[in-house]
Structure formats: C-alpha cells, structure tokens
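Bench log. Compound arrived from synthesis this morning; before running ITC I wanted a structural hypothesis for how magnesium ion sits in the protein. Inputs:
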Amino acid sequence: MPYEAYAEILKQGNLVAFPTETVYGLGASAWSPSAIRSVFEIKGRPSDNPLIVHISSLAMLDGFTSKVSPVAKLLIRKFWPGPLTLVFGKKPEVLDAVTAGLQTVALRMPDHPVALSLIEQAGPLVAPSANKSGRPSPTRAEHVIADFGKRIPVIDGGECRIGLESTVLDVTGSKPVILRPGYITPANIEQVIGYRPLVESLDNIAKPKSPGMKYSHYAPEASVQWLNNDRQLSTENAMFLLHTMMASPASNNRIVHFRGDLERMARELYDWFRKADLDMMDYVFIESFDKVSAPNELIIALENRIDKAVGGKG
Ligand code: TXA
Ligand code: MG
C-alpha cells in the first residue's frame, strides 16, 4: 500500500502502526477523540496514562503549545528529529484524551523517514508503543502482528535502529527533569544546556510525573532476573543475556553475548524478551553492567527497562 493510503486510513479516524527510530508506534490522529479512544481500548492501556504527540515540522508544534522556553528551543535544535520527547504546558484545545487530563502535553519529532512522511500527510499523530499494555515494546513489524494480529495495518520498516523508547524530558519548570530515561542521556542534554538535568526518582512511583512509569512494563512471560549468583548460571531452560560471564550449556539454554555492546543490547533487548517467550523459556537472566568498561549512560535506560521487567510478570 502506498503511504497515501495509510495516511487516508488515519485521517478517517482509524489506526495504523508505523516504524520510528525507537520502537513501532500505534498511530492515531491527535485531533480525533474516537481514534484515541480506540488506541486505549485496543492496547488495554490505563486511561490515566497520557500519549505522546508525534509531529513532522516545527509548525505543527504551535498547535499544541505556546510555551517553548529558551532551553527547550536549544534542545529542539539539537535533538529533533530524534528520540527526545519534550513535555510542555498545553494549549487549551489539546484533547483531554491525549493528555489524560494533565495540563501538559508530550511532543516528539521522530527521526524516521516513514514516520515523518506519514505525519506530513496525515497530520500530528498520537503514537504509544504498538504493543498490548504490559508487553515489551515492538521493535519489528512481526512484534506488532504478534500482539494485534491483522486488526491493525502495519507499515513494515524492518528493525528499529534504537530499540528503546524515547527519553521523556519535562521542560515546564525552571530546570528540565528526565521523566523516562532513554537513548538521549543526561550527559547528552548537559552538553546542550550547560548543566545536568535532574532524573525523576523512580522510587517516587506512587505519583510519578510521567504516569506511564508506575505501571509494570516491558516484561515477557518468562521470569526476568538479574544474574547475581552462580547457581543461576546452570539453570535449565533459561536465556542468558551476558557481557563478560560464561554460562554453562545446560539443556535448552540460549546464550546471547553482547560483550559490552550496549547499543546492540538496546536494539535487541525486547526482541530477545519476545524470543524467550516463543521458545517457552522459564527464565531470562541478565548480567549486570558492573564489568562493562566503557562509561556509557545508555546503561541508565537499559537498567530502567530491565528493572521494570524484573518487577513485572513471571
Ligand atoms: O519512543 C517513543 O516514545 C515511542 C515511539 C512510538 O514514539 N512511544 C512511546 O509511547 O513510548 P508510550 O505511550 O508507550 O509512552 C509514553 C510515555 C509514558 O510514560 C507517558 O506517561 C509519558 O510518555 N507521557 C506522555 N504524556 C505525558 C505528559 N503530558 N506528562 C508526563 N509524561 C507524559
Ligand atoms: Mg509503551
């Protein structure tokens, strides 16, 4: 199907899943209350969890906020299009269904040619990750089909380049605060604004500023655990995601060695979670990053997602 046809589906108030550089999004027109309602329904998403509006030009930003601070402008110039979502004070006309009733709206410009041309034609789109709530975010078109079957048309753009959801940064206050860590790190932001942004404490989970952070997420059916004792290393029917250790080849094991390549781990993490379930693994054991030598703040986002999977199902 040509993109015009997908854009038409969106303009008529229906949903289309599409690739971005982070993960696949479940797109719906940001101005259609009924389309947004179906996003919540089909994902099984709690109604107090707001959506990110995806735009393809700075002109589209004006429709949603008039409060772009000088710091936000610097960040936009440096990181858009890219995996940084900014939270602004919202214009009154932004739909409550998008913001879950908050006075703020989250916006991002994805760095993916398919996403940008789709938005260009269909207008601004809300796009949560295109997974059923609680499942790992989709990084391949097959993942979207695994969760939703044929109910949602999916534009197949192959594997997402980054594989973890965008960094969510609140720029409504005097100093920016990271609400969800991602590929754009505190150090990346510091380079642009001259000081380190705060990182919202994930312990402050009862009433987090980013409502999505309180839900268990990203978890496969298999039990995800940090590797912290030798006994785990000989567990059968387990997947091991490793950097330095050697696991024993017990029966039905699957051993994946990232050797400290954190970019690759970010890109493939959710795919391995889903493979663990397809292979009916009982456990996914993940080596901590203690022995990974290169200082790399991508660890903050990886640990965040893995901690949530550890706290999740299984
Ligand atoms: O990389 C991404 O951001 C992907 C791709 C598809 O763009 N989208 C994504 O959307 O991860 P979703 O809905 O799965 O996660 C959105 C996160 C949630 O944690 C939500 O609570 C937060 O953004 N959020 C949205 N609007 C917000 C707001 N006004 N204030 C604070 N947090 C907000
Ligand atoms: Mg999500």
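What the model suggests: The chain has ten helices and 13 strands. The chain has a mean pLDDT of 93.
ITC booked for Thursday regardless.
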